[in-house]
Design brief:
three-stranded parallel sheet; 18 strands; Dimethylsulfoxide Reductase, domain 2; 3 domains; iron-sulfur cluster binding; alpha/beta; six-stranded mixed sheet; 18 helices; MoPterin_dinucl-bd_dom; iron-sulfur; Rossmann fold; Barwin-like endoglucanases
């Protein structure tokens, strides 16, 4: 957390940029007064001097970028955290030119691409808004169907409806929610209530083991298509190895199912699907052909036609003399504490995340070839030396970790990579299912779960 009060007190904002390109600056200014460096220090644990130094460096450099990861978004206030980052970029004019901007570093290589291609409930394939009548009409004409203009549910809302008995079947593609989602015991109970659970995946994950039907898909090395990076860079992915004969690409499985259910879908390859996306969402993808990707290696969207070079830097309009530009709105937000704080019964704050060599729920990376050096082969609870000393526990010793939702046994790793009072675990190992501990709370806008904060107790196992 940087001190907004300092930005206003020392004039660390771009007044000309704000006047030309933003609105609601006065709302932000009136709300930030309590957020002094000292108050920010109390919240974050950082020194007030470090906060002041960082704020000055960010505001006065020739170009500053904010790169963030899931530590920003996996909170009940994740959307507000992102609003606050956007406020900082607008406040200082650090957007729309090289070396500036906001860079969300995603958990996987194609998170952006998956969202762009229709995996978000409020968007059509191609990143077009489902609520936009003009955009929706294009798809309706192409597909010969009438589309519901209202967004469907996020995963969070879907699970709520499972709990209320409104949904009886669930189709999971390329996910392992039993191990990856918060409050694992609750998730398992929901799945056990289903009449039908279908899982489409490349391994028999913990979720797939509960499924009534498993549809065998293909891995990244067995398919053809495109990936989209977090900076909107589109690249080709090509088949590297021959797939198993009893598997299909994801799009083939979906086409087969749609056809069986009365809506024939027939494509010959991923290129045909891509060309349909280019046709329907031409403002974004129209100029990005497979031939161009072969020749140029990668292209950044938007790229509306084949003569367009792609958009390497987004929002350059902020630095052009254009009096008719649509202005960007400041969205003032308040700090909110984690929903579950440490107390005498549960005195430690647990935050969860990933480890260097392991990928998600470890269904792929647990099969590393023999001889490859792997730093961590089992789960640990990472704890500061001061806390380990106060508990009388040694490195490598087994402890019981308990929250209000569950408990598990895990080995201790003593490290200064965490601060006193904070402990860390990942969710990679099914043998140590960390998410039996985590909190079943979500951001009300995005539906993202609060993975980063829950209270736990740690007990030495005699």
């Amino acid at each position: 957390m940087l001190s907004y009060e300092l930005f206003f007190k020392e004039g660390l904002y771009n007044a000309e940029f704000i006047k030309k390109f933003t609105i609601d600056f006065d709302l932000l200014e009136s709300q930030v007064e309590p957020y002094t460096p000292e108050y920010a220090s109390m919240i974050t644990g950082l020194s007030a001097d470090d906060i002041v130094t960082t704020a000055r460096e960010y505001a006065t450099s020739s170009g500053s970028m904010i790169a963030y990861t899931l530590g920003i978004t996996e909170h009940h206030c994740g959307v507000n955290n992102v609003f606050d980052i956007a406020n900082l970029a607008l406040l200082t004019g650090n957007i729309g030119k090289q070396g500036t901007g906001i860079m969300p570093l995603r958990g996987q290589n194609n998170v952006q691409g998956a969202g762009d291609m229709g995996c978000l409930p409020n968007q059509l394939a191609g990143g077009m808004s489902l609520a936009n009548d003009e955009f929706r009409a294009r798809y309706e004409k192409e597909w010969g169907v009438k589309l519901n203009p209202y967004p469907d549910d996020t995963q969070t809302r879907t699970f709520d409806r499972l709990e209320m008995g409104e949904l009886k079947a669930l189709y999971v593609i390329g996910e392992n929610p039993l191990l990856a989602d918060v409050h694992m015991n609750h998730t398992k109970t929901l799945f056990e209530k289903l009449d039908l659970l279908i899982v489409q995946d490349i391994f028999l994950t913990e979720t797939a083991q509960m499924a009534d039907v498993v549809l065998p898909a293909r891995s990244w090395g067995e398919v053809d298509g495109t990936y989209t990076n977090t900076d909107r860079r589109i690249q080709r992915v090509r088949k590297a190895v021959e797939p198993h004969p009893n598997t299909k690409e994801d799009w083939e499985i979906l086409c087969d199912l749609a056809t069986l259910m009365g809506y024939p879908m027939h494509y010959h390859n991923s290129k045909e699907i891509w060309n349909e996306v280019r046709k329907l969402a031409w403002e974004i993808y129209g100029g990005i052909t497979y031939d161009r990707l072969e020749e140029e290696y990668s292209i950044h969207y938007p790229c509306p036609d084949e003569n367009h070079p792609g958009t390497f830097i987004l929002h350059e309009r902020f630095h052009k003399q254009n009096p008719d530009i649509k202005k960007s709105r400041f969205v003032p937000v308040d700090y909110t504490e984690p929903l579950e704080l440490p107390d005498p019964e549960y005195p430690f704050m647990l935050t969860t995340g990933r480890r260097y060599e392991s990928y998600n729920t470890h269904s792929q990376t647990r099969f590393y070839a023999a001889g490859i050096k792997v730093k961590q082969t089992e789960e640990t609870i990472d704890i500061h030396p001061e806390d380990a000393c106060s508990l009388g526990i040694q490195d490598g010793e087994m402890v019981q970790v308990t929250s209000r939702r569950g408990e598990l046994l895990v080995k201790v790793k003593i490290t200064e990579q965490v601060v006193p009072g904070l402990v860390f675990m990942s969710f990679h190992w099914s043998e140590t299912p960390t998410n039996v501990l985590t909190l079943n709370e979500y951001d009300p806008i995005s539906g993202t779960a609060e993975y980063k904060a829950c209270a736990v107790a740690i007990t030495k196992v005699s």
